[in-house]
Input
Amino acid sequence: MTGFLLRRIGQAVVVVLGVTLVTFMLLHALPGSLARSIIGPRATPQQIASFNKQYGLNRSVWYQYWSYLWALAHGNLGFSFHLSRPVTSLLSSELPRDLVLGGVSLVLSLVIAIPVGVIQAVRRNRLGDYVGTGVSFVLYSMPTYALGIILIQLLAITFHVFPAEAPQTASTLGLLAHPSGLVLPVMTLTLVTYAQFSRYMRSSAIETLAQDYIRTARATGLPERLVLLRHLLRNSLISVVTLVGVSVPVIVTGTLIVEQVFNLPGAGLEYFYAAQSNDYPVMLGITVVVGVVTVLGNLLADIGYALLDPRIRY
Amino acid sequence: MSNSPLSAEAAVAGLERLVPGGVDPDTDASQSGGALRLIGRTFVQNKLAIAGAAVIVLVTLFCFVGPLLYHTDQLNPNLIAANSAPGSNFPLGADNSGFNILGRLMVGGQSSIEVGFAVAAIATIVGILYGAISGYFGKVVDVVMMRVVDVGFSIPVVFLFIFVSRVFQPSLSLLIWLLGLVSWLVPARLVRGETLALKVREYVQAVRTMGGGSVRIIFRHLIPNTIGTIVVTATFQVANAVLVLATIQYLGFGLPPTEPTWGSMLSNGITYLEDGYWWQVYPALTMIVIVVVAFNFIGDALQDAFEVRLQQR
Output
């Protein structure tokens, strides 16, 4: 187990390094220079040279990458010249909101997808199963932004149930103080995540139902309800760990789109603004953070799986 | 609850074997050596898959043959007709530039379907080669190649696209290559996994004993045996590409109006949904959803079909 852990963590470190390398090199492949986008089109060559010297941009790419990594290791994600603030401080105020949005949606979609998936597996190929499959297929096949807009049209414009826009406050607590504004964004993200989860839960539960220990449990005369609760559900819960791990990219992308649709302030929306103003340090910082979270999610899922399921040994 | 349909079926099958002239479907298939026939039949028995395939055929006809029968001008804006509601002149209404939405669905569908298939082709070919090489050579090669895949998986696609859209002049071919660039990871991982299992089989060792080189083993023996996985993942790739295309077009990867896609129609129309111009949103959305659902049905059925083949072998 220790060997597995060390190997797996080593892999994760390598992958994180790879993510920083790729994103950093992408930035360097960009036409135009940071200096010109900051000082402006009328900057003299002298001004540009002195800007480049001041920020180490006249050094080799590898040196710059190394100093970027060095700063990253010290928790410094760079400086946004457009916002005149460090990227770290920007993210520390934005990320908690993403955690609220992503976390609540993740929990809700699990709470819905697990029982629905299990029920669909038990009653498979009946009307309820077909309806469930149909719903998740349609949700899965719909672009996230379209789903969000339809919900706005239906629940905010036609029937004035929830506000169409997320609460516009600077703090995470302020966001929580206006829960009604969060309903539609959370609903959108939950439905999208649910569509992914329910299909997985259904097939995982069908697989478990075919196992010998389910047949044995039934043969001992255990009531069907207990067979499902004790054996099917508990074993299906193990696969939830994997689900949560691999769903990180889905949720992160979903958060980005949902923030854009509902004008919900967060790291995703910051990424949009940064893209529009060519604020590369912010874009790079957010991409790296998302990459690290994805790698961590997969790492924790693998470790959690190994810990929870005694049959898995590395 | 715990009835035993399996034993009942087996009993019926056994009876059929006893009755002279009674054809047992299972033995028939294996005798005629038709793994393909077996796959085909399992696929055909799946009603959803047939519906999915029918939808794809109909949509393709609609997009590629439709414009020959139903002529609309999709190049010159007609501002007098802008935002017209569905009526006799415009069966599905007109968009904010006065383009006939029914006609635009056909033209836009051409690009969307082309992108879907092109991306699936690129992703599948690159993924097969990458995965087979990584799995076949193993050891350090495999470790390095798979970490590259991990890195690819950890960079959020949509973020990457927003980034790239700021730098390059968007065009349909650029989109195809970019989507291909991020889509080969899944097939690569799947093919690599299968290659790991296949390369220790006796027939691979036999080829090697007889002096067959790595290239021969990979192309003649390993890759053909992963065909099931390849076909299934390619089908899902098409669905995924259509969907991701629609998403990135909303996020700012806009193509010029002369190159409409369902995604651009949808993201364009959504701006006007608040004005009540629902006809600018739902036709394109419906097309995206039914095409993605259809490809998913086909992919699921193919997955079942290939698993049946594996079980009966």
Q: What stands out?
A: Strands of chain A lie at 79-80, 85-86.
